[in-house]
């Protein structure tokens, strides 16, 4: 054994389907199988893991952002979701009162050039002839607004009327009977006879997770409304991100964030793809768009700027997936792709350009004069096989390298089996498969060429019957797969699970790592599995070998790492089989006297059934449980 001056805490993380195991380093299994895990902590058996190996992939899918991470409470705040025409459907807005006392319609009357639809509300009753509480409109948000007692909500709306107005702006229960916060918007005709932005803060005197916003009046006349927003004040770092969902992300310590999709970037048709220029600048002026792959409208409050801000707030490297002129159903010909290429170059100027550049000045005006640290661009999503992909890709690639040679370019083509036929710094690799297949893909990159671009496993998950809505079984297979990525991290640069978020009211994709409604959130087992890897990026990988005479699917990985509190060796073991195993742990190359048992811990992710899932009612059915490492001195010391 070589000696070391540092003292190490041992962190043993166990992910098992076969539930029972005893304390410390021995855990017991049904068939009395035994295995010895040998961890070599000596200097010769060490490999450096890249600092950005594990991150997250945020896609606007399942209302992940709109009605999710983006804390805006009003759904369809600009009345454009029903189409950019008038008349249009104003869903989910509806009326308070009935058609005898109020009429609402849409018209192309807004002061905002890119989103002309505004709401016209005509009130026929006056004073005591109106129903008590008045008449008007309400918005239920995204399946109910979460209003919490004592919290403050910022209301901003745009209004116009030829006469003076007196409008009650209230947060109420879903039927309007419980008033949680209210204020009167009173303005003279001279103020509102042209479009005017008005606003104030509302403080809630009660709580209700299924609330709505009401705009009501008892004054006869016509009022136009547009761009109505309600944001909680206490968003993460004041940047508009829902705090409880951000906490879930912060716990993962993501080293990068890929955004904003996925298929969301492509669109079913190009006309519905994510176009970043329409998502920056003042929120009121953004047109919003219908994401036709996942079939919902987004006001694009969570736009390109906010994604860059999100990355910065998480301390994660932004990975910007740019639309490359290709959607699911149509493609721009290479002969006419140059405006799209310019759009990408402009996006980099927006992120990194000086405040006196055309696009950098817009970023600066949005409150971020310093450049964002954008170093990665992915050219498209899952488009490799498409007719125009390669020709378009090359135009993007050379334009990018010419203007920004330091930016790392990510190709959609898989280079894991055969080398790419085009230049790239990284290539995208996606895998959605069964538990047994992903488990066996533990070896996936072992035979990949050690030369050329590195792999970015930007989407991985167990799906189908093994996964259900998010099972322990899926998490175990994924952990085994990640062990393989750590071992091959000389050529695998980054990896992220997909999808990250789902609002439970629009779960179009199963499973998802983090599931929420207006007020609650839980992590699927696959989310908790990722917490076993939060210290891997930048750590030192140690050599591990299982000595066993059985075929039970057992895999392990070990790392050493340090933080300001000390030095650690983390050993992780996955047993996805049905059999219990007595596993003996042997660590070589580490001076036993350097091990500090008091700070050492065991963490177990398990449950009584492999198919167990978490839910809003049982958020921690399958969640890590941490205990002290030993209650007695382990045998190996
Ligand atoms: O993660 C869900 C979808 O799966 C992504 O949008 C797409 O890239 C993949 O097909």
Automatic annotation (TrEMBL):
SMART domains: Alpha-L-AF_C
Cellular location(s): Secreted, Extracellular space, Extracellular matrix
Keyword Ribonucleoprotein belongs to the record: no
Keyword set includes Glycoprotein: yes
Listed EC numbers: 3.2.1.55
Main location: secreted
Catalytic activity reported: Hydrolysis of terminal non-reducing alpha-L-arabinofuranoside residues in alpha-L-arabinosides
Gene3D superfamilies in the record: Glycosidases, Golgi alpha-mannosidase II
MF term (GO), any: alpha-L-arabinofuranosidase activity
Pfam families: Alpha-L-AF_C (PF06964), ASD1_dom (PF22848)
GO biological process: L-arabinose metabolic process
Alphabetically ordered keywords of this record: Extracellular matrix, Glycoprotein, Hydrolase, Secreted, Signal
Signal peptide coordinates: 1-20
Domain Alpha-L-arabinofuranosidase C-terminal: 458-637
Highest taxon of the lineage: Eukaryota
Protein family: Belongs to the glycosyl hydrolase 51 family.
Protein name: non-reducing end alpha-L-arabinofuranosidase
Protein's organism: Dionaea muscipula (Venus flytrap)
